[in-house]
Amino acid sequence: xxxxxPHSPTxxxxxxxxxxxxxxxxxxxxxxxxxxxxxLRAAHPGHELVLAAPERLTDAAAATGAVDRLLPTSxxxxxxxxxxxxxxxxxxxxxxxxxxxPASHNLLQALRPGRLLGYAHPAMPALSGPVWREDEHERxxxxxxxxxxxxxxxxxxxxxxxxxxxxxxxxAVVIHPGADAAARRWPPERFxxxxxxxxxxxxxxxxxxxxxxxxxxxxxxxxxDLPPSVVxxxxxxxxxxELAALVAGARAMIVGDTGLAxxxxxxxxxxxxxxxxxxxxxxxxxxxxxxxxxxxxDHIDRPRPGDAHGDRPDDRLLRITAxxxxxxxxxxxxxDLTSAGEAAVVRVG
Length: 349
Known about the structure:
The chain has 13 helices and 11 strands. By secondary structure, it is α/β, with parallel strands linked by helices. It folds into 2 domains: 18-148, 3-Layer(aba) Sandwich (Rossmann fold); 173-348, Rossmann fold (3-Layer(aba) Sandwich), CATH 3.40.50.2000. Helix 2 runs parallel beside helix 5. It starts with 17 loop residues before the first strand and ends with a helix.
């Protein structure tokens, strides 16, 4: 496992030439872009690397060891920001790690960069980038982009260092029932069944919640016959350092296709990840024994068979059972989990 050394953040008054990278999305989106960001940093050590992303990702961006400064963006949900803040002089290089369409390209082009690195698009004939592929893992996608422009990138360079903070629950099994869309939220009663079984098998269970996910997390805790104190978060954003310390010190993570799954991958934490509308080959963890992927595709295996932002749980996600999750937990390498997981499967069954 490797991770880049910490990179000292700089002030807006930095006079170095700039690389501006657009990735105005969520935590998971940032973490799958880490290998490409690291490659850009290594190829341009004399530049200031500025990441255009939501302000809540400031600490996560710093943890990558590649970003000097975050340029805050603002837009509802996952919409494209209309404008980017003032940078001073035009950036030397602008890199579109946000998408491949004219909206994101034009947003960067408006800053008059010396060079624009992005995927080719019919509406942007002047941009001679590589061809976009639908069936490609996100880490590979952005590494291929920067590599095409002469910046070698390794998709396996995804790890970040664990924070210096102690874990609030060392050795716990962390369960995250939330996701930013219902299509990727496994039913709370099934998360509760898993939590109850693991608790009865002697595991310390922590249930995490993002902003506005408190009611969901507390519902899971109640149905699992666990006290409210097992819930971390829900009212406000859990500081990234505290969340990363929890995940880094966890024995295992049970999570849907969301940002905390990528945080577990980035920290090398064993995980069981549940997929529905999008194939794990697009957004899944590294193919390593410490990660278990659960997915039940249709007879025609497509990269995006459902709507990742739909308003109801995806049918493929609903095919996953609590017993199946507990079996996957039992298969994770390492001490104690196998016997506890096997006992839990018996209880659920």
